[in-house]
Amino acid sequence: MDTVIVTGGRGSSGRWVVDSLRRQFEVVVVDHDHPGFGAAPVGNVDFRAADLTDRGAVRELVTSVAPDAVVHWGAIPALGRHPEGEVFENNTLAAYNVLTAAGEVGARIVQASSDGAYGFFFAEETPLPDELPITEAHPRRPEDGYGLSKVAAEAVAAGVARRHDVQVASLRPSWIQEPGGYPCRDPDYTENLGAGAGNYWSYVDTRDVAEQVSAALTTTFAPGGGHEAFNCVAADNALGDPLEALLETVYGTVPEAGPGVDGDGSAYSVQKAEDLLGWTPEHSWREAVTEDVPRPELTRD
After folding, report:
1. Across residues 128-155, what is the average pLDDT?
2. What is the residue-averaged pLDDT of the chain?
């Protein structure tokens, strides 16, 4: 069985990624801390602790494990709880350290980028997209430290792919939701159109994120090496209303809409992920908001 390193695997979405991958891989979770030497990991999971901004430590760890694949999921996931410059520095440096070390050992790589790379949500004034649906080819124009860190991480990914002839996928999830705990359906969100306007009411279920990670690791989409970015978004919007009507209400205008935008659909296209990875989102807030699915535990009681 192949081995995969997952950074940030103890986080809220990272643990879903680990739980999915451990059925196909031996998984080594690398986070800023580990659950303790007395912890009993679930099957096919082990733990290491490392500061991902420490280049030497990351390189030593990756070299010692010699993984077949690396999933870089460890980052500060948004603005608001850290100084903006710290978000940029942490995320950019961690991506450089992890991806370059993975490339040196010839591992396949998947990393967490974000729809924040487009520059919509954290902009001083939210811009409308150039067109709908938003594809991966849409210009990335972030103004903030978080979005800029994701653009930088994707540039690192492309450089690593070129230098080491490895396959690298940068996934761009929108607002990640866990089953039974969908904040995108809280009244503060659904009854205030402005609350979700910054990413056009987009979201994605964490189980679909985990499945896209798995698909990106197990599908050859760049023979001989290469980097590709993939949107990772639910098929519908979080409000269940026609997208064009929502945009018209909030922004007073609607970008030119092409094929794939219909009714309550998402503003983002996932056609590329379907074409290259065979991945499509399976979960909607309509069912998931009330589902009783326990959050994966990575250690046994």
Report:
1. 96
2. 95
